[in-house]
Amino acid sequence: NGSAMVFSSYPAPHLQSSDYGPFIDQFVGTAVLAFMICVIADERNEIPKYLQPLMIGLSVVMIGTCFAANLGYPINPARDLGPRIFSGLIYGIGVFSTPSAYFWLAPVIGPMFGAPVGGWVYYFVFGFHLPPKSGDIYRIIHNYEMNELK
After folding, report:
1. pLDDT score for 115
2. d(CA 9, CA 121)
3. Where are the coiled-coil regions (predicted)?
4. Where are the alpha helices (DSSP H) in 42-98?
C-alpha cells in the first residue's frame, strides 16, 4: 500500500501523531489561496487582467513550497477525495483509516472552512476600505449612503 500516496495525500511523519495538524495545514493553506485570489481578482486593486492567471499560479506555487512538506497541499477537496476513493478500489478500505480513522477528513473539510475565512479576511482587511470604481455596485451603494446621510 506504499504507492497509495501517488493518488491522494498522506501526512508526513511529523504530522501522523496529530489529528489537528493536517486540518490546520489545509485550513491555513486554503485560506491563503482564497485571500490571494481575492487580492488578485478585485478590480479595485487594478491588477491587469493578463497578469491575473500568472499571479494566481504563482500563489499556488508559493503555497506548495510552504505547505507541501506537511501534506502535499491538497488545497481542494476534489484533489484528494476522488483519488482516495479510486485508490480505495485498488488498495482497500485502509486508505481511509491510515494513519488514523479521521485523517481523510482534513483534506476534505479543511478547505471548505479555510476558503471562506480567507475571503472574508481579505474583505475585512482591505476590501471594505478600498474606494469603489465608477459604475461599480459598491459606488452605487456608497452614493446612496452618502445621500442618506445628508
Report:
1. 93
2. 27
3. none
4. 52-71, 77-91
Contact (CB, 8 A) for 8 and 83: yes
pLDDT at residue 11 in the model: 77
DSSP character string of 25-48:
HHHHHHHHHHHHHHHHH-GGG---
Name 135's Cβ contacts closer than 8 Å, sequence gap at least 6: none
Residue 32 C-alpha cell reads as: 491563503
From residue 85, alpha-carbon distances to 57, 78, 88, 92, 106 in Å are 27, 11, 5, 9, 15
If residue 122 lies in a helix (H) or strand (E), which one and from where to where?
helix 106-125
Interatomic CA distance for residues 92 and 121, integer angstroms: 40
